[in-house]
Amino acid sequence: MNSYERLLLHNKAWAAEQVAEDPEYFARLASIQRPEFLWIGCSDSRVPANSITGTQPGEVFVHRNVANLVVNTDLNLLTVLEYAVVYLEVKHIIVCGHYGCGGVKAAMSRHSFGLIDPWLRNIKDVYRVHEAEFKAIADPETRCNRLVERSVVEQVMNLAKTTVVQRAWQKHQSPHLHGWVYGLNDGVLKPLVRKGPGVELPEIYQYDDV
Ligand SMILES: [Zn+2]
Fold it and tell me: Of these residues, 6, 10, 34, 46, which one is catalytic?
């Protein structure tokens, strides 16, 4: 059997199992989507949003990219964000990084990887801001993991800078923004930062007329 056939086989069994447990399962899911969470995570195959949070289909709206970045010119991310905030009215947005992130490691090196270089530049910029702190960490793995954390906090701030989020805050005091890091070694999620309406953003990022 080809490896991809295993997926189709598992799917068949899974679908049958859901219906056996709850005959209305798919009918209910198909009719409406009302997730409470938007998850912005890394594309890394070891960090699947639903599995590690014990959530089911229908509970989490998901966007993933290399190194879980919130880039203000990324139309894909902005589209997902606006849809989640304006139409789905999610209550929480979670940016989830993970220790040992290959994207962050690559950003820390001086090697050019091609098309991904400008994407990773966003992480290099975070490194530059905290350069003194990173240079004081001798162990490369520890340094990388600290950059993972610093980057997650930065991405949360990037969310707060968007008009989509600021407009929602003015309108209904939500969503709340969370920055978490996942440990590949122990499977544990560590909350780093939580921001709600009234977050202290430098004035220049605050819109008066959203
Ligand atoms: Zn990663």
Answer: 46
Choose, from 44, 143, 144, 146, the residue flagged as catalytic.
Answer: 44
Task: Please list the residue range(s) of the chain that carry CATH number 3.40.1050.10.
Answer: 33-198
Q: Of the CATH numbers 3.30.390.60, 3.30.750.24, 3.40.1050.10, 1.20.58.2190, which one belongs to the domain with range 33-198?
A: 3.40.1050.10
- Tens of pLDDT, residues 38-93: 999 999 999 999 999 999 999 999 999 999 999 999 999 999 999 999 999 999 99
Contact call for residues 102 and 44 (beta carbons, < 8 A) = yes
| Distance of CA 101 from the midpoint of ligand 1 (Å) | 4
- Does 125 participate in catalysis according to the annotation? no
For residue 206, what are the contacts with CB-CB under 8 A and spacing of at least 6? 166
pTM above 0.70, yes or no: yes
Instruction: Calculate how far, in angstroms, residue 5's C-alpha sits from the geometric centre of ligand 1.
Output: 27
